[in-house]
Structures are given as structure tokens and as C-alpha cells.
Design goal:
single chain, 0% strand
Length: 421
């Protein structure tokens, strides 16, 4: 049976899906995630800013803080995939949120005492990254246990919509708070949001049984690499994984390059730069809202391949931006279109990965995916920066745009078999 969504029995399947409702506990989870994501959006970029303003870190130190925390977090998270797999997921998620709260709340507490140091910021960034990897690994498995297979696209669309909504609201709010009260207040809000999320997760009432599968002795190495083994064993997951690493790496590399292009080459003002960052997130919001309807009408395979390909076109358009209002319109339009396509693609992709992964491998697959992304992206960023230094900013962005276009070749263009839980 091919993975073609509701075609040809669209009417019957749609009626049955509409009769299934998302559970109250899913919405409790959704609200807990909403609180923590809003706090993270408010506090986004606060740690580098604190490093610059309060501990007077150099540009190299700020860059190294991000690079070191990402690499160290990936190493520390490597053995945690099996550890998460063999435990109840909700307590792991609560513990991850409490760890994030503890790490982040130390920053304003120590800053207000006047003893904040650069090494502490590096430790906080690392612990936050590890906690995020652990939480996301457990969260994917937990969502799968809460949501029946026929409505997982709807559930993942709600989560994707939530992400783009808080991104749209949180970034301007965080900027205003930093202007009024400094960066430490946004870190405190971020920390408290994790504490509130942990309390919200405790309100979930669905019983979660102990995982039936248990780690046998002398299998730790195989369990650690089990996430990658699952990803590479499935043809479709393997192609989606490779596509995600290449697409995400190239897009991440383009981020600082676009900042240089807008602020240095095109001479955009601060408010124009902020507008170019904030307004396009509405595209991701609308895309995530449209995803379930498109899946119903044309099937998940068409959405996966169509949106996955369409999102690769728009970075190249930004190269045509010129100084002035017209250039700003070009960048905002192209970025909005890119995020609209990404907003459609992500819920369908997440649902396929969820359905194609066995329950006993969900956490390890999620951990392997996060670790791989945190390894690939710094490498792409470094390569982009080196190319820009050797040539020009536009040349480096053009190279990233070409890689984005090529990433669509890695999508699973052959027929996709229907994954069952």
C-alpha cells in the first residue's frame, strides 16, 4: 500500500478522522510547551548579548560559546538516547525543564550579584542545549503515545502552529524588554517559563506504563548507535534525514550571512532588520495551519514532496535585493514564502518519522537527529563564513542557495510505503 493519504477513499477516511478528537491531556501538553517556547522566544539571543555587555566577551569568545556549547551538548547527549528510551517519558520531560530552569535562573541571580563570568555562560548554554535534546527526544515519543495515528498530522500541525505563533510574538516582546530592562530579565522569564512548563506537565493524567523493552547487559554501544541504525535502515527515513541535514545546514549557514548582507552591504536600519526577521514568521504560521487541509485534499506524499521542494527556491531570490525599500520587500517576501513552505512541510515530515519509527526507538531516533543537526550546522556555518571571507557575502549566500536547491534531490521521490505504528 502506498503512502498517498486519503486518496482514493478520502471521504470515508476524512469522516473517521473528524470523529477522533485530540485528548485533553494533549492540550495540557500543548499548553506546557506553549509556555516554555514563548519564554525561549522572549529570551532568544540573550546569552550572547549578556556575554558582550556584562562580561565583555570578544567576538571570538561569543562565537566559541555557541560552537563549544553545541558540540559539548551533542557529546553529552549521545548516551542519553537509550537512557530516555527505557524510562517513562513525562518524568524525563519534567526533569529536562527543571534542569533548564536551574541553569538559566543562575544567570540573572549571579549577574545581579556582580560575579557573572564567561565560563558560567558557556556552562549554562551547554546545559540548556543538553536539556533541549533530552526534552525533544522524550516529547516525540510521548506525543506518539497520546495521539492516535489517523490524527497525528493534525496534532503535529497544532505544535508547528504553536512554534510559529510564539516566534512571531516572542521575538518583538523580548526586544522590547531588553530595551527597557536589560537582557537578564529575558533570561529570568525564560527560566520561569520552564518551571511553569514542568508544573503544567504534572497536570497530565493519562497513565504512562513502564516501557516494556529493557536494555540488556553489554549492549550500551549498540543502543547508543541504535538511533542512527533505525534512520539508515529505512529508505525513506534515510533520505529525509540526509535532506534535513543538508537543507538545515545550508539554511543555518545563510543566517549570519544574510545579517551581514542586510546590515553591512544593504545598509538596513535596526528596525528594518528586525522587520525582516519577524514578519516572515507569519508565513510559517499560515503554512502550518494549511498543512492538515492540504493533506486531506491531495495527500501527505504530495505535500511532503511539493512543500519540501518549494522551500528550496527562495534563498536565491534574496540575492537580487538592493538597498532601499524595494530590497527590504524582496527579502521579506522571499523569507515569508520559504517559511510558509517549511510550515507545511514540517508537520507532515514529523508525522511520517513518528509513524515509521517503532515505539522502542523513538527517543533514540530523536536524539540521533538532534545530535546530527547540532554537528552539521556549525560545520556549514564555518564553511559559509570561510567562503565569505575568501570571496564575498553574496557569493557565500549563492553557494548556500545552490545547496538548498540540490537538497530537494534527496527527498524520497520513489513511492512511500505507509508507515504503521
Amino acid at each position: 500500500m502506498t503512502y498517498r493519504g486519503p486518496v482514493p477513499a478520502a471521504t470515508n477516511r476524512t469522516a473517521s478522522e473528524r470523529s477522533i478528537q485530540l485528548s485533553p491531556d494533549f492540550y495540557r501538553l500543548w499548553r506546557a510547551i506553549a509556555v516554555s517556547q514563548l519564554g525561549s522566544a522572549v529570551g532568544a539571543g540573550a546569552l550572547p548579548l549578556i556575554a558582550i555587555l556584562l562580561v565583555h566577551a570578544s567576538a571570538l569568545q561569543v562565537t566559541m560559546m555557541a560552537a563549544i556549547s553545541g558540540v559539548v551538548a551533542a557529546v553529552l547527549a549521545l548516551p542519553l538516547g537509550p537512557w530516555v528510551e527505557f524510562r517513562r517519558k513525562r518524568p524525563v520531560m519534567i526533569a529536562a525543564n527543571l534542569a533548564s530552569f536551574t541553569a538559566l535562573v543562575s544567570v540573572p541571580a549571579v549577574a545581579w550579584m556582580g560575579t557573572l563570568t564567561y565560563p558560567q555562560l558557556c556552562v549554562v548554554a551547554t546545559l540548556s542545549a543538553v536539556s533541549a535534546i533530552v526534552f525533544n527526544a522524550a516529547n516525540g515519543a510521548y506525543v506518539k503515545s497520546l495521539v492516535p495515528e489517523p490524527i497525528r498530522v493534525r496534532a503535529n500541525s497544532r505544535l508547528e502552529t504553536l512554534f510559529w505563533t510564539v516566534s512571531t510574538i516572542g521575538a518583538p516582546l523580548g526586544g522590547a524588554l531588553i530595551s527597557l530592562s536589560g537582557a537578564t530579565i529575558t533570561v529570568l522569564i525564560d527560566a520561569l517559563s520552564y518551571l511553569a512548563a514542568a508544573l503544567g506537565l504534572r497536570r497530565i493524567t493519562t497513565f504512562e506504563p513502564e516501557p516494556e523493552h529493557h536494555r540488556r547487559e553489554h549492549e550500551w554501544i549498540s543502543e547508543v548507535r541504535g538511533g542512527w541504525s533505525c534512520l539508515l535502515a529505512d529508505r525513506v527515513l534515510r533520505r529525509l534525514f540526509c535532506n534535513a541535514m543538508v537543507f538545515g545546514g545550508a539554511l543555518t549557514a545563510a543566517g549570519p550571512l544574510m545579517a551581514l548582507l542586510m546590515l553591512r552591504d544593504l545598509q538596513f536600519t535596526a528596525w528594518q532588520y528586525g522587520l525582516a526577521l519577524g514578519l516572515p514568521t507569519l508565513g510559517g504560521l499560515f503554512g502550518s495551519v494549511c498543512a492538515p487541509r492540504l493533506v486531506t485534499h491531495i495527500g501527505p506524499r504530495a505535500v511532503l514532496l511539493g512543500a519540501g521542494t518549494a522551500r528550496t527556491f527562495w534563498l536565491a531570490l534574496m540575492l537580487f535585493a538592493q538597498p532601499g525599500t524595494a530590497g527590504l520587500i524582496v527579502i521579506v517576501t522571499a523569507d515569508t514564502a520559504l517559511l510558509f513552505c517549511a510550515g507545511m512541510f514540517n508537520p507532515v515530515f514529523t508525522t511520517y518519522r513518528m509513524n515509521a519509527t517503532t515505539d522502542r526507538s523513538m527517543a533514540r531516533v530523536g536524539t540521533a537527529w538532534s545530535i546530527s543537526a547540532r554537528t552539521f550546522q556549525p560545520a556549514f556555518i564555518a564553511a559559509g563564513g570561510f567562503l565569505a571571507a575568501m570571496t564575498s557575502t553574496r557569493t557565500a549566500i549563492a553557494a548556500a542557495a545552490i545547496i538548498l536547491l540540490a537538497s530537494s534531490l534527496l527527498l524520497p521521490w520513489k513511492r512511500i510505503r505507509t508507515p504503521h505504528a
